[in-house]
Amino acid sequence: MTTVHPSWFLALAATLFCIGLYGALARRSAVAVLMGIFLMLDAVILNLVAFGRALEAAGMGGQVLAVLLILVAAAETALGLALVATLWQRYSTTSLDDLNSLKE
Amino acid sequence: MPTLFDFAWLIPLFPLLAFVAISLFAHPNRTLSEQLAIYLGAVISFVLAFLVLLSAVVVSGELPIEIPLLDRWFSLGLNREPIGISIDPVGAALLLTLALIYLIISIYSKEALRDDARFSRFFALLSLLAAGAFAMLVFDNLLVLLIAWEIMDVCIYLLTGLGHEGREEEGGSNGSLKTFLIAQVGNLCLLLGLALLYAQGSSLAYGEAFGAANMEALRQSTLSGDFPTGGVIAWLFLGAVIARCAQVPLHTWLPEANEAPAGAGALIHATAIASGAFLLMRALPVFDATAASLSIPSLGLSGITLVGTLTAVLTSLAALAQRDIRHAVSLSAASQAGTAIAALGIGAQVAALFHILTTLSSITLLLLAAEWVARGMARGRQEAPSDEPFDAHDMAAMGGLYDRLPAAFWTFFIGGLALSGLPPLLVSGFWSKDALLAQVWASNPTLFWILACSGGLTTFGAMRQVSLVFVGAPRSQAASRAAAHIPTLATLLILLCILVMGLGWIGIPAHFPALEGLPNLLESFLGAQDTARDFLWDSRMLGLAFSTLGLIAAFVFYAWAPLRAGEPDRLEQAMRRMWLGWLYQLMRNRFYADALVGSILARGAVLLAGGLAAIENGLNLLTDGLAFLAQRVCTGGQWLDVHVLSELTHLAGRAGERLSHAGNLFEQHLLGQLSGLAHGGTLALARLGDLFERAVLAPAVDGAGRLVRVAGLGFRPRTGRVQNYLLLACAAVAVLAAVFLFLFLQV
């Protein structure tokens, strides 16, 4: 049985994280930003599982934490979407360029 | 073989289930809510608590009984924390008392809040409060104690908030906030003490944390070489008890807790005093081991005794000047708790526990009777409406209620007598206060005089209340029409009266004349004995004398010629005449402890925030200045470009032109072809220079200028756009990560 070397997982996770970071920083729509954040969390979860397997072959620590993080990501996305819905209700726009009332 | 104690963890479980069921499901259905709360929550836990106490009494020789439940409740690093049940005499006694009070209050509140919209929420919170209190008494872990205290604090805050509902515009919710914040101060002290204790012994179970080995280690260890750890822990625990039992200077929250609707105020008083007393008794090994750090040498007293005595005197004084009927009772409760704590400080455990138990029952009786009186006044108000502001609890508006509410009078009177400890032999208050004062007399006579005085003041306060409320002529329309026929409450209060009168017989001291043969049940249950064994007539008689003096004084001041409507309080008049008006003001405002604590803590926090804001403004000014400087530099660069460099190149161009003219002339007159070439050459050079300037220099300088401008102007970080902020944050993280990796980890 051939195994995939852990460094491949890390590379994939890093790529996903960068894509997610781009999405969070450079997209105009709030929903797209949420998607980017979710991608970043996915990358972290992937990392956890990979490291968990690599460092602690018999233990479940990495996977347990990964399950927890999936829950966290879901909850956070739900919260974020609720925020987007409220934004839409109040300002009729979800474009982050227009939402700059904190400007001094 | 499983005994009843294995199921002791069910006692807090049932009220918790009631809370969950009511808040999640039964919310809209009031009948279901009340049935859940009363039967599922209160009745079952009361029955269980009763059985637990019975079993505990039966096996009193083997207490405390410790039953491990879970070997690994949670892990802290490499330590596995177990959790188990620990039933000991103090816990079992308090458990039954609290369960009984909870049951009584649930039954009363069901009837009192019948038409109220807050019904389900109230019962949910009441169940949770009881669940927290029971959990504290049943489990064997200090961490569970802390969690239970936090749960109780949240419930107290929410319950008092319920009472303020609809009156927010008067700023009433500040009271519940104050309750919560003072309780948090106590919880912080407890958490710190707990953390230190855990660091010392790596265990939070009572058996080990307060075990002999840990105490021995505690005696030796110091914190950073200067402070003895044990002393710090002892003071921290004492701080937690001060906040909990409403001792001075944190005594102002207990009167506020009365805002909770129906009888919840009584349950709040009971659970708060019980939790403080419970912690104090559990943590006695720590206090014993660190007695040297706790004692105040100039007074020859332990810190505990000092706090207790101070509270006993100050709160009983403050109770004399209150106009709200419930506030006076709360402050008297704090005073009695202070007396019990003072007794614990000199090592009289049995007497202190006894006094706490009797205080809990008398306070509940008094608060419920006050509730009855208030209901009567509210009904009277309904019959005689007027535009004046009305407070159903204001004693200045009451009077002559003996004729209108006779049953309320008797219950309140018995409660007041129980609190004061008169008459002898009949009320439990007498037995407990008597035992307590005897112990104090044996150990420290000065302390005895002070505590006896505070006992007299309490009697004065209780009888003052009775006179103001029930004696004389009604002082307002509402009082003259007061009426409240509440059979449920009447039955419950009669039960409480019987309890209050009968509770005393469990703790008859040894060598009491004419009662020599009767056993002291409390002592045999606790397995401990107080030191002073002989019956001393002196302390007994003096204690009784002080209380009787208080009674007579109250009679003379208030009942001999009852107050008429509009007449100011007699005590206030008397003190003003003796130039003690300032003292009366202090008493009225509970010694301004609110203002003191507020100015130290609250204004201190505001000042700190102001200082930090000023620092931030300064930093903003700095960055603005830098940006301004950068802007000036780029303008300067532009000026340089426009006025100097291009002039130079233009000059070069013009010079070349002049030269070509001269060459022209030269050529015209002498050279010809060669000069034409030279002319053309210089022209070409000029154009090249121009080209160079346009294509290379200008853009370069312009670019430099723009760069500086961007650097100066563009970096206005506060654009208001989330993603810019996010970018800044990521950049900061990247920089920090790089620093961390390359500097600290030496990658």
Which helices and strands occur, and which strands form pairs?
The complex is a heterodimer of chains A (104) and B (747).
Chain A: H1 6-26, H2 30-55, H3 61-91
Chain B: H1 10-26, H2 30-58, E1 65-76, E2 79-87, H3 89-112, H4 119-138, H5 142-164, H6 173-201, H7 206-209, H8 212-220, E3 222-223, E4 227-228, H9 229-244, H10 253-256, H11 264-282, H12 284-289, H13 291-294, E5 295-296, E6 301-302, H14 303-319, H15 325-345, H16 349-383, H17 401-404, H18 406-420, H19 428-443, H20 445-470, H21 477-480, H22 487-502, H23 521-526, H24 537-559, H25 570-577, H26 581-588, H27 593-669, H28 673-714, H29 722-744
Antiparallel strand pairs in B: 1-2, 3-4, 5-6
Mean pLDDT across residues of chain B: 81
Distance between the termini of chain A: 61 Å
Largest interface: A-B, 13 and 9 residues
Label the overall shape of chain A. elongated
Separate helix tally of chain B: 29
State which percent range the strand residues of chain B make up: under 5%
Percent helix range of chain B: over 70%
Task: Find the count of extended strands of chain A (DSSP E, 2+ residues).
Answer: 0
Question: Radius of gyration of chain B over alpha carbons?
Answer: 39 Å
Give a short account of the largest sheet of chain A: none
**Could you give a short account of the major beta sheet of chain B?**
2 strands, antiparallel
